[in-house]
Design a protein that fits this description.
Largest sheet: 6 strands, parallel
Bound molecules: glycine
CATH class of the largest domain: Mainly Alpha
Strand order of the largest sheet: 1-8-5-4-2-3
Helix content: 40-55%
Radius of gyration: 20 Å
CATH superfamily of the largest domain: Dehydroquinate synthase-like - alpha domain
Strand content: 15-25%
CATH architecture of the largest domain: Up-down Bundle
Length: 354
């Protein structure tokens, strides 16, 4: 899999114009959703080469990351004469970069794509690392491909327009990267207050560090055969909570579910791999202070467990966790007793006083 090129920029217009001028392509397409069409595209539209592009706009929201909208993208590409030498820019959050990436991976067996993430979640996670896909048959990212964009441009100017909930959602992935990386990265992320008056210059530097952590892991294992599984920390239980919230009709933001999953999975790490108790307490307290609680009681433990058994990362029916022995000390492919998983759900509820 070819390496992607990730650039953190402070002047997106100038850098994008320069990059596009040096690139060979016959036609340019820009994929937006209804939100980024209105709020983000106008920030780029006076770039001369962008003005020559064809804008494709799809409905915003993860529920629209489906075959119907994907086929609408394919149709525009086809009807407007896109060739294998055309370029598709995905301007948006994770839904746009995932689905646009997959449209790029599949149209005429693959056309080059560029991601310009506009949310924190997409900047530090979805737009980086080459995972693309759509939801199918009620399952998230059920159909997809590893297909890295030729370049990812990350400009934190977009983050200034995000509301607190969306900023916190992306920040959970930054906390995850820091826990996977080192005591120093962890100390810097846990000392930052994304829910208060945000220091954007500092956040910008931290985004660059967070992306570099993810890039290092993806470079080592682009197809998730081994160490890339580390990036699932917090996601096994987090995804189960996200699915439960979806079934209830009140979907959690992905990163809020991941934050709750991190609390549970660090508890498992403490019990099973010797993760330090003081760091567990510190992370649980931090998440309780920053994130809204996810309410559930013990009558729902079995339902959550059942959802965990459907996790894509499981092998031979065994729930597959990524745990930590300490910050930076990753243990992949961990199986955990059901009783201990239930104990971790108790720990979450006790930490939040639920
Ligand atoms: N979002 C996890 C990964 O890219 O592997």
């Amino acid at each position: 899999m070819a390496n992607q090129h990730v650039v953190i920029v402070t002047n997106l217009k100038a850098e994008l114009q320069e990059y596009l001028s040096a690139l060979k392509y016959d036609k340019l397409f820009i994929l937006t959703d209804t939100n980024t069409r209105e709020k983000c595209y106008p920030l780029l539209k006076d770039i001369p080469l962008i003005q020559q592009g064809e804008v494709i706009s799809i409905e915003a929201g993860d529920t629209g990351k489906d075959i119907t909208q994907l086929s609408a993208i394919w149709r525009v590409l086809s009807e407007k004469g896109a060739s294998r030498h055309s370029l598709l820019i995905n301007l948006g959050g994770g839904m746009v970069t995932d689905m646009g990436g997959f449209a790029g991976a599949t149209f005429k067996r693959g056309i080059p794509t560029i991601n310009i993430p506009t949310t924190l979640m997409a900047s530090v996670d979805a737009a980086v690392g080459g995972k693309t896909g759509i939801n199918f048959n009620g399952l998230k990212n059920e159909i997809g491909a590893f297909y890295p964009p030729v370049c990812v441009f990350i400009d934190c100017m977009f983050l200034r327009t995000l509301d607190r909930d969306n900023l916190l959602s992306g920040y959970a992935e930054m906390l995850k990267h820091a826990l996977l990386s080192s005591p120093e990265d962890y100390a810097s992320v846990i000392a930052f207050d994304p829910g208060g008056a945000v220091d954007y210059a500092r956040l910008h530097r931290m985004v660059a560090q967070s992306v570099a952590i993810k890039e290092r892991i993806v470079e080592e294992d682009p197809r998730e055969l081994g160490i890339r599984k580390a990036l699932n920390l917090g996601h096994t239980i987090g995804h189960a909570m996200e699915s439960l919230s979806f079934k209830r009709g009140h979907p959690l933001l992905h990163g809020h579910a991941v934050a709750a999953g991190i609390v549970c999975e660090l508890y498992l790490s403490y019990k099973q791999c010797g993760f330090p108790a003081d760091k567990l307490t510190q992370v649980a307290y931090y998440i309780k202070e920053q994130y809204p609680p996810f309410f559930f009681d013990c009558s729902e433990y079995d339902a959550l467990y059942e959802l965990m058994t459907h996790d894509k990362k499981n092998e031979s029916g065994i729930i597959n966790f990524t745990l930590l022995a300490d910050t930076g000390k990753v243990r992949i492919n961990q199986s955990v007793d059901k009783a201990l998983i239930f104990e971790s759900l108790d720990f979450y509820r006790e930490s939040f006083g639920i």
